[in-house]
Amino acid sequence: MASSFNTQWLNSATEQLKGLRVLLVDDNLEYLRTVQMLVEVLGCEVSACSEAEQCLDNLEQFRPDVALLDVALPGTDGIELSRLIRARAGFEDLKIVAVSGYSEQQVRRSVGDGQIDAFLCKPVSLETLHATLLSCTSVSQSEPQESTAPSKP
């Protein structure tokens, strides 16, 4: 019975996020592939990058709705990358989610106002990822949707 409920939740979650364009940036390739699979399972279109420069090159072509940026990227870190993205014409309102193994308080202290819209702490669960992406969509703001995780029996 529990797997049936989980399937129902996943079907609903997929329908809620279907077609959302998500840009992932993380230098840990294993983690990047894992999160890419999770986002795809949720029905989103995904572009995955392992470097800040690759992300910036990909912005215009992919036109994401949401960007999930690793805070601790080498070179241009996720915080600086969020500033560079926001400075680009047409991307000022892109929803940016900071992803980190650090606590949210630590990350928010180093981020300027308006640089990030949400925060995810690694490792991220499918349910948390769904709720965060849903909170970044215009659908969730105009039509409240239930995004609770499936309950455990």
Could you please describe the fold and organization of this structure?
The protein has a single domain, classed as Response regulator (Rossmann fold, 3-Layer(aba) Sandwich), CATH 3.40.50.2300. Helix content is 46%, strand content 16%. It has 7 helices and 5 strands; from the N terminus they run H-E-H-E-H-E-H-E-H-E-H-H. Strands 2-1-3-4-5 form a 5-stranded parallel β-sheet, sandwiched between helices. Strand 1 (21-25), helix 2 and strand 2 form a beta-alpha-beta unit. The protein starts with a helix and ends in an 11-residue tail after the last helix. Residues 139-153 have low confidence and may be disordered.
Topology:
Elements: H1 2-17, E1 21-25, H2 29-41, E2 45-49, H3 52-62, E3 66-70, H4 78-86, E4 95-100, H5 104-110, E5 118-121, H6 126-135, H7 138-142
Parallel strand pairs: 1-2, 1-3, 3-4, 4-5
Mean pLDDT over the full residue set = 83
What is the CATH topology classification name?
A: Rossmann fold
Span of the ends, CA to CA: 9 Å
Helix proportion range: 40-55%
Identify the CATH homologous superfamily.
Answer: Response regulator
Q: List segments where confidence is low: pLDDT < 50 over at least 5 consecutive residues.
A: 139-153
The strand count comes to 5
Largest sheet: 5 strands, parallel
Order of SSEs? HEHEHEHEHEHH
Strand content: 15-25%
Q: What's the CATH architecture name? A: 3-Layer(aba) Sandwich
Structural category is alpha/beta
CATH class: Alpha Beta
The best one-word shape is globular
Describe the strand arrangement of the main beta sheet, using strand numbers.
Answer: 2-1-3-4-5
Q: What is the helix tally?
A: 7
Number of domains: 1
